[in-house]
Design a protein that fits this description.
Blueprint lengths: L29 H20 L6 H7 L4 H29 L1 H19 L5 H11 L5 H12 L5 H32 L4 H26 L8 H6 L11 H9 L2 H32 L3 H13 L4 H16 L2 H22 L4 H25 L8 H26 L2 H20 L5 H16 L1
Amino acid sequence: MAATPSPDASLNSSAQGKATRIALFTFRTPQMRAFHMTWMAFFICFFAWFACAPLMPMLRGEFGLTPDQVANINIAAVAVTILVRLIIGPLCDRYGPRKAYTGLLVLGAIPVLGVAMAQTYEAFLFFRLLIGAIGASFVITQYHTSVMFAPNVVGTANAASAGWGNAGGGAAQGLMPLLLAGVLMLGVSETMGWRVALLVPGVAMLLMAALYWRFTQDCPQGNYAELRAQGIAIDGGKKGGWASFVAASANYRVWLLFVTYGACFGVEIFIHNVAAMYFVDKFELSLKAAGLAAASFGLLALFARALGGWASDKVARTHGLSARTTLLFVLMLGEGLGLLWFSQSNSVALAVIAMLAFGLFTHMACGATYALVPFIDRKALGGVSGIIGAGGNVGAVAAGLLMKSLGSLQQTLMVLGVLVVLSALCAVAVRFSAEHKAREQALLESALAS
């Protein structure tokens, strides 16, 4: 889309056209178009990523899967995302988020459609592995909002766009069983029904790719390729590619947040993959009831992740940059304790209440983590976003391997609760120099004064 100046000057910061407020009900500005298109694209990506999870009790019987094979499928669903997230961040710096997101949506639709045609466990596992690449959409979502919004609201913008997107995982838990039921009512057999249901998210991804290409641009000034051709410097002097990755990987704060994000988003992904089966196996719920219970966890992201980002912006405005790390510590502590409670719940009602309690802290911690990301290294934003984002999937894979080794989901949840409490210490270990804080404060004051 051609670069056009924003028609609403009050939305832009004086420096680089970054929005200083979120005008939620407008689509007129490039900043808000990016905001709305990112959360919609991310919603569809997450829906497609976790579309198989609520159907696993049925698919387990369809393919005659053993517990070990189910664990392999859950690990495969998140494993390849680690690599793709590491790559996609620097690619955003190099080619821009518009091209990166459109390409990911188109290529990611292929394995989503492929899994609906799988005839064997091996084919199912292969396509499930490739579907994991869709999880890299998160990095592009956070990157795009980071370059579009000013320091005073970037945490809220990042968390809100990701939160509404993450809700796609919760929506998949509740809607896929209903979609399957609707297909079966048309007289389609169960063997064919789940395949037809899984075609829907793949087609939705292709439609979203066309919309993203049509309605977004890379940054407030336009698209990276056009700006570079005109000799205009990209925000923060970003070069992209390998240089972005190297600069980010040399920053110790990145690896501390890598751990914290593994402990919050990794747990979130793990719960998305196992919640429906947990409620079916432990409490003997029906597939539809288990799906709705699991959906309540994911749908918390509609507001909880945004709440974490908003709270981070709020405390930073009054207490400075370091307050963001303190808030993250508190949220992760609450998550770990809540997870321990959930692991010991022995009734459906108590288990759902405990899941919602620790889920609130989990989603808020995810939002608070990425409210910190734009302030780590502005010149290597793509690398920072990619590495920390990959940490979430490392956490999910580690949780899957832990479950596979322990052989008990309840024990796995208990151990994860302890590990989350310990990882909260990484949040308070993130420190910023006086010069760094002064520079960020100056950017904040500039945005607020505009």
